[in-house]
DNA sequence: CAATCACATTCAATTCCATGAATATGATTA
DNA sequence: TAATCATATTCATGGAATTGAATGTGATTG
């Protein structure tokens, strides 16, 4: 059991429940921020933690929601776990809402904090 | 006070809160269904009631949520109150989510029930 | 295999949302 | 102005989402 959102509603439920479920996942600024950070490809959790400035466990909780919804996937590489968006169409949803609310920037003004992962610290 | 969603978050809040608020409104199959019914222009409440098959008070509750969020507006004409979508860009959000979830129809398979409003019963 | 690292999960408390039931409102007609 | 119509609101309750705190897991290194 524990189907992801998209698969779950494809069969038995009402048509608009699938949309509603997706929106439910997006009803959270941190989750939106995570998805925005993943626009340029995969990132490890320490990245997200550093850029968003929240506790690790909290980030992990939100990642779990996105993961169980089937919106992101994880991949382990040594010590780090890298997350990536499964279906880029999710950004069409985010962008449409962004246009509707008429905001200025795409909302990715990060902290540019230091990250200890091998992609950050070692060479460059 | 009681600002609508779009106005409320434009000033003081975080960027992605505005998007999150919009998504929160859409986290409800009945509200999505109402918006879909309003795709072809305004409808009176009795229409929505007849087409969706819910109690009047329930429809009215959901209309209130949409209205207070600034997504729809009402107009009185005699006995009936007609609702319309304020900004059609909301459909870009719905359609994007619809595409993401890969549904077949636009989810507007209504009941085609009878409605007592003057637009329905009197002449045609 | 013990220590350590990056990350995940569980638990509990609070707050928020959904919804049925009952009732209110405000325009309209007689 | 009283009755009636379409629609709105209030209230109460059960259930779900949020989040802090603590702890667990599994790969990696020595």
Structure description:
Two copies of one chain form a homodimer. Chain A has one domain: Arc Repressor Mutant, subunit A (Orthogonal Bundle), CATH 1.10.10.10. Helix content of chain A is 48%, strand content 11%. Chain A has six helices and three strands, in the order αααβααββα. Mean pLDDT of chain A is 84; it is low at 6-12. Chain A binds chain B through residues 6, 9-10, 14-20, 22-24, 26-29, 32-33, 36, 87, 89-90, 92-103, 105, 107, 109, and chain B through 6, 9-10, 14-20, 22-24, 26-29, 32-33, 36, 87, 89-90, 92-103, 105, 107, 109. Chain B binds a DNA duplex (30 and 30 nucleotides) through residues 24, 27-28, 44-46, 49, 55-61, 63-64, 74, 76, 78-81, 116-117.
